[in-house]
Amino acid sequence: MAVLSRRTALFLGLAALIGFQTGDASAQRRPRELHVFTSGGFTAAFEALAKQYERDTGVHIVTEHGPSMGDTPQAIPNRLARHEAADVVILARSGLDKLAEQKVVTPGTTIDLGLSKIAVAVKAGAPTPNITTPDALRSTLLTAKSVAWSDSASGVYIQSAMLDRLGIADQVRPKGRMIPATPVGKIVADGQAEIGFQQLSELKPVKGIRIVGLLPDTLQKVTPFSAGVVAYSPHQAEARALIAYLASPKAHRQIRDSGLEPVVAKVTP
Fold first, then answer.
1. Of 198, 166, 171, which is closest to residue 67 (Cα–Cα)?
2. pLDDT digits (tens, 9 = 90+) for 163-185
3. pTM
4. Element (H, E) at 261
């Protein structure tokens, strides 16, 4: 019941804070700018939704990008540790949960927005490898001269779990690269890796590659991309309103078009 009431409160906040009557006194007190950090998996969806939100509300969205995890300075946890200006964060659920445990995210504001699956890509014009079954994927990886995966949620899974499940970790890790910050698709498009793995939503915008398909179901790892309000944000209510918008049915088309599956959001107590 507590979960339901919080979610209801979020959407009530949305109605109050992003109502379309521009003469409303509360609208005049609304901040004209919100800062959002988003990781690559939700970037394409958020770019479309931010424009729509700006049109509907007049609130300008300043978007910054970074991985959900990792050691690079651009990684969202590292940027928050430096207290860079931020009101909302959107990243892989595992990363968001760590931020919530550290009290970097305001309790009760985390919501799952979209479910992401891992896909495989090769350079445009290259032969299409067979990845339809675990055995086919195993053979493809053993044959490949070079492999790339990200330093975020999908790549961590591939390097630390999937290769072991396929029984080829010792053969593939030495010729594999974990790519920090740069989209894996760009590494493949530039010919620096023969085959690449990343979230489908992160591969779709990259030119110069062919998306072969998703990992086989038995090897697939579904990653929720989720949002939360930054604890040190001076605009708590307004940040909640933006998240409510992203979790509403109005956002489903853009989320689906980006390569993610919209979810019925649940607020963490």
1. 198
2. 999 999 999 999 999 998 789 99
3. 0.78
4. strand 261-262
